[in-house]
Queue: 2 jobs
Job 1
Amino acid sequence: MSNGFELPLRLLMAFRVLIDALHEELAERGHPDMRPMHGFVLQAVARGADSAASLGRTLGVSKQAAGKTIETLEGLGYVTRVPDPADSRRKTVVLTGRGTDALRQSAEVFDELRARWAAELGAGRLDDLEDTLRRMTPGDLFRLDVPGWFG
Amino acid sequence: MSNGFELPLRLLMAFRVLIDALHEELAERGHPDMRPMHGFVLQAVARGADSAASLGRTLGVSKQAAGKTIETLEGLGYVTRVPDPADSRRKTVVLTGRGTDALRQSAEVFDELRARWAAELGAGRLDDLEDTLRRMTPGDLFRLDVPGWFG
DNA sequence: CTAAGATAGACAATGTCGTTGTCCATATAG
DNA sequence: CTATATGGACAACGACATTGTCTATCTTAG
């Protein structure tokens, strides 16, 4: 195999390793129905994408698709929609207690996973890894338009 | 933002950076209709997943889904199906000239991208990155069952 | 103030891509 | 030879995205 092939695959697998571990752990902590996508969406909502239209823009999908995703999350109990008093067209998307819990738990698990990596690699090597990745990736971390990108 | 959140996102973005650059370059080299998925499938075919059923197993999807993917790739001219003389149920999937060209070009571009990273980071840091990733990811690189995994 | 345009969200039709179930032809094992 | 497993095609369905259209509402220009 050529050299260059390995790097992207390792990056993807490392991501998968973390995300799979996250969701295994989340399932045991009361969030068995969370999917990788949902974490992204909840993050986006928490960061201000609090309507179908703005969520769609943040995620790089149509507002209709964003609306359906919100419906799904609403069905799972992670968000609610409340009418916006200042603009009666809008329905503001709000994280429920369960939603904020999911985010808090995700953060905890990610911190634990990072600690596990630090223990295995040594803190220095992990810091180096993060520094290197920071140098090779765009600064704005939250371009979350991942959904259909791969197909 | 908590510390642990950053690592997985950076890993994913680094992967995206490479894959986007690859396909931008591939488009200019005569493969504008290649999608990220297609590279994975062609790889799998080249590595011996030469029937709908075995491709499905390798990719972690049903044989029907694999069959449709093969049809698509066939329509794009990357593979052909030839009857297997030893087993008249099977139709062996074979890379066309265009298919092998796509793989060769991908390898070239990945090598160039890796060289670009080496130039920017220094060869030592890039080697460190790859070593670190190798330590944290499974050995068998070609578990390519990526398709629906994210949903 | 009013008219024009932009925006939020709902609804419908459609496309893509995965799934399961069924079926037939063919290999393979007992 | 017979029973079972396998490869591939076809059909029905579901998840999830798309575009287009519609109404209600907000915002801006004149």
Job 2
Amino acid sequence: MKRIEAKWQAYWDTHQTFRVDLDDATASDDSRNHSEPASPQHANGAATGGPSRDARKKYVLDMFPYPSGAGLHVGHPEGYTATDIVSRYSRMRGVQVLHPMGWDAFGLPAEDYAIKTGTHPAVTTAKNIGTFKRQLKSLGFSYDWSREFATTDPEYYRWTQWIFLQLFDTWYDATCVWTGQDGVTRTGKGRPISELPIPHDVAANGVNAVRRYQDQHRLAYQHEAPVNWCPMLGTVLANEEIIDGKSDRGGHPVERVPLRQWLLRITAYGDRLASELDDLQWPDSIKLMQKNWIGRSEGAEVDFFVGEGQDSFKQWSSARKESGFSREPGAEGLRIYTTRPDTLFGVTYMVLAPEHAAVDRLTTAERRAAVDTYRQQAAMKSDLDRTDLAKGKSGVFTGGYATNPVNGEKVPVWIADYVLISYGTGAIMAVPAHDERDLEFATQFGIDVRHVVAPDGQPQSDAPGFFEHGVAINSGGYNGLSTLVFKTKITSDLEANGLGRKAVNYRLRDWLFSRQRYWGEPFPIWHELDSSGVPTGLMRTDPETSLPVLLPEMADFKPTGTPEPMLSKAPDSWLYSTASDGTRLKREANTMPQWAGSCWYYLRFADPKNNRQFIDPAIEKRWLPVDLYVGGAEHAVLHLLYSRFWHKVLFDRGHVSTVEPFRRLVNQGMILGEVEFTGYVVGDASAVAALTGGAGSSANSMNGSTDSTGPRWISVRELTDRVDAEGTAIRVVTKTGEVATAVTLVGDRVEKKGDAFVLKDQPGVVVDSRAHKMSKARGNVINPDVVVDQFGADSLRLYEMFMGPLEAVKPWGMKGVEGVARFLGRVWRMIVDEQSESGIRLSHTVQDCPATAEQLRVLHRTIKAVTRDIESLGFNTAISRMMEFVNDFLAMDARPKSVIEPFVLLLSPFAPHLAEELWQLLGHPSTLAYETWPNHDDAWLIESEFEIPVQLNGKLRGKVTVPADADRETIERAAKADPVIASQLEGKTIVKTIFVPGKMVNFVVK
RNA sequence: GGCCGAGUGGCGAAACAGGCAGACGCACAGGACUUAAAAUCCUGUGUCCCGAUAGGGACGUGCGGGUUCGAACCCCGCCUCGGCUACCA
């Protein structure tokens, strides 16, 4: 088996079997003998593809891996086999297939390794890529390896930097209405910065003022903001890289420190990123996750008056009525954002985020100390502390008051960290009666609760809070309005009075795009320095022609230990330069995040060697978007959102012709470790050892024990999850609090009882039965190399597809691998004579004889089912169909070549090595990779008679066999004539007869 | 807490649009081949009941209701597990 696999892998390599030349669409090779046109499977591509997309092309893409030192994981081949089957199948349908592979190779692990050992990350990366490539090749995937690249290749990151320059050169015109290359008219466009209108007052201040103004509007911009600085990793992290207040990688603590950072204005594309999801063939759950992540909400901005005295409030109000809603709230205004402007009459206090700029102004002298203390504490708190709901809310009164613009009422202004500076305006109006969080806060601090909405408009409400929509009460002239009507009306009333306006907000934040590490793409940006070497804040870009900006060689990879980037330790020759006009320049020393390289790699695969453009527009038009994209759900939000963002910018700037990069997305389910049984023991260590030593006798000795404090097995049902002092998850006995020790049990010590598994010798003890995520710590990781070594690549491929549906989470089972390996053995013996002395040759049962009708029926049934299942990615059932075929044909002594050959073709996408070998033995000189996929003929599926179930009142009572062409009357008569049915019908009347052609007949009787 | 998904034999699963529940595989049991074992092949296998056998019956897709001639599938309520998210006003 191993010999066969190596042979064919070498063959495919030597013959470049899977190389595809994209600019030669009409390529015709002798082996590519197609007699029929490809099936037009993607007629629904109009939404994302242009009208002239070539139906005979298919771009099938895997999410490219990060080549970690650990090598391939069994999760990788799951998706890769699925796309390989689709690719091989599509080629046989006469479709030109682009199926590439490459490496997402920038990132922290290689750099961490460099810090520890001094090995250059490029060395580590190259070594890991070598391992991955060897492993992938050993699985026989039909990649076009001539297109391989890594994101770390200078010739690749040259174009990553080029795209960054596009982002830098673009501003978002939210009001621009335009028609793109896809023929769709939309509002909002990324436009060249040179087209940004410059206000007169800015222009009047000179060239540098204009430059600064432009810099503020670019899609790639610098901004000083609190960032998530992780001292352990020595880098700043994106919000998305922080889980529960700790770093996603390594779980290290994260601090908030202010720093000047690069951000990408992804929020400008929030609307389009949400709405343009609709036409994609993506799982609904992923679309929903992206929409939730973008988190668009509609509401209103409202200014509260924070000046002194009723008179000045009146002046302020009338001035506002005159001038309209201002761009900035001004010194006497406090701007809030709310989604419930209909509850304005229920406001009993206001809350500012601790970092809000107006806090100083509003704080009174006697509250100053308390406010300052609180602000300091809030600044220190990690995100985890801030969001710890269990601890309740915190906040302090500033001493200041704000006046409600709708009723002139003065309400106290607080600061509290449950209001986030980064969302909305960083200030809220609090309506405890109708907002859960405000209610919790108000209850805690004894603030009034005023009801202004009731379910039915009846003022008497005894509930503390009502958070749904309803009918307005206690709201002046608005009483009786339903929530939605009220919202619209008060928003326009506020607008008319210059006090508020409709507003949209997003949970999505701009994307923090700089990292302080070495192993990433350098920015093609220079900072201008003044005569004393201090940055002026003005920037210049590297010209496109000087890209790539290469990483400098460095000997020392130790982090700086401060938020200062690694590359600030680079040699001066790299770091400094002088412009032609004499200006001193310093290089941007941050690097791009790992996401950058993976944001556009799918484009480069179509034109990987192009040294004039990131992709040739003609090639882009023909091959994009990706037709099928398969990968893990862990990238559901970040990678896919970032890619879509970049793609849309490139689209707006005319560099790509489609608005979305990935037409169809499928998420493979995670493969878990083998199912494990876990029992729990209480008692000291020696007792645990005695119980679990495996000796049945010692366990039995505990059987009669009624001593509830001694060492003993304990049911999982009596345990509760806890967290111990060190923060580790433990399980304790619910009643006594004793800590239980987990013991992994072998399968034959347990049995099923009811709906749970119990110990065989102590049926009262329920044990856990679960498959866990594979992890080094648990020791349940399956290495694909071992599986390939033992069972062969075809077995691994087949097993991973046979386990269950591609999208499902499924536990590994080595016995299942044996099962599919046995199946492949049966296929082999169906065709090959193993007994032969003269080496391998065809079995004498495989003959050039005519096929019987029965054999043809089995074949065509199999062709039909396998084809349909591949189209719907139902690989598990496709394999079971082929197993049925083999079971049938092994029972036959004559196996016509005309039936066996199509079967080998059906099998080939799944088990290509075996199939190629069999194909050769059947007398074909070259690869089957471009043979025509078999077609089924329904004519062969017709049977002369069939069995139809007969029901009485919906319950199955018998079956009758009728001729295939029998009409309804004949079938009903036959059903009634059946002895069993007849006896049951006796003495009853048939009220109604349900007849489903080909399915069943049902008599409703009384 | 919120959102999404899933619960079917001892196990992984199948049932395509509401119409024969459990295809296919694993495991197990019995048998054949073998000195023996492995490999391979054959037979059986949801649970319970009646029956010597042939055969027949009842129950059965997490739980409780509902719609329907008919529900694993649709609706309502609940339970359990998994994923995502976590004060976004």
